[in-house]
C-alpha cells in the first residue's frame, strides 16, 4: 500500500485485505472496521481529519446502512477509492 500513499494495518486472507483492519488514506481519513476481499465489508467507521465520522455497515465496498448519528448521503459510496469523495461530501455545505 505504500505506493498509493495508504497504510493498511490488519489481516490478510490469500493475499487480500480481509478481517478486522485499520486503513489510513493519504488524506488522513481513517477507516476502522471489517474488510473482505480488499474492500470495506461489515461494520466500520470512517474518521475524518475534521473530527467527523461516518458509521456504517458496508457490503462489498458500499455503505448499505448508516447509523443515525452519521451524516446522510444522497448516494452510496464505493471504497476505498471513493473515500476522498466521501470526505469531500462531509465538508461540503448542503444546498438549500
How many helices? The count is 1
Strand content: over 45%
Question: Which consecutive residue ranges, at least 5 long each, have pLDDT under 50?
Answer: 72-96
Largest sheet entry: 6 strands, antiparallel
Total E-strand runs = 6
Radius of gyration: 13 Å
Q: How far apart, in Å, are the first and last alpha carbons? A: 40 Å
Helix content: under 10%
Strand order of the largest sheet: 1-2-3-4-5-6
Shape: flat
What is the typical, i.e. mean, pLDDT? 75
Structural class: mainly beta
Order of helices and strands: EEEEEEH
Subcellular location: Cell projection, Cilium, Flagellum
Main location: other
Keywords: Cell projection, Cilium, Flagellum, Repeat
InterPro entries: MORN (IPR003409), Morn5 (IPR042814)
Question: Care to describe what's here?
Answer:
- The chain is 9% helix and 46% strand.
- The chain has 1 helix and 6 strands; from the N terminus they run E-E-E-E-E-E-H.
- Mean pLDDT is 75; it is low at 72-96.
- The chain is mainly beta and 96 residues long.
- It is flat, with a radius of gyration of 13 Å.
Record keyword descriptors for this entry.
mainly beta; flagellum; 9% helix; disordered C terminus; single chain; MORN repeat-containing protein 5; 96 residues; 46% strand; six-stranded antiparallel β-sheet
Topology:
Blueprint: E1 7-13, E2 16-24, E3 30-36, E4 39-47, E5 53-59, E6 62-66, H1 83-91
Kindly summarize this structure in a few lines.
With 96 residues, this protein is mostly beta strands.
Amino acid at each position: 500500500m505504500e505506493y498509493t500513499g495508504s497504510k493498511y494495518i490488519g489481516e490478510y486472507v490469500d493475499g487480500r485485505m480481509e478481517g478486522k483492519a485499520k486503513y489510513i488514506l493519504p488524506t488522513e481519513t481513517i477507516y476502522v472496521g471489517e474488510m473482505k476481499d480488499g474492500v470495506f465489508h461489515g461494520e466500520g467507521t470512517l474518521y475524518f481529519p475534521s473530527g467527523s465520522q461516518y458509521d456504517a455497515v458496508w457490503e462489498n465496498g458500499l455503505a448499505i446502512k448508516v447509523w443515525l448519528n452519521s451524516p446522510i448521503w444522497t448516494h452510496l459510496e464505493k471504497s476505498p477509492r471513493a473515500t476522498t469523495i466521501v470526505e469531500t461530501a462531509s465538508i461540503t455545505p448542503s444546498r438549500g
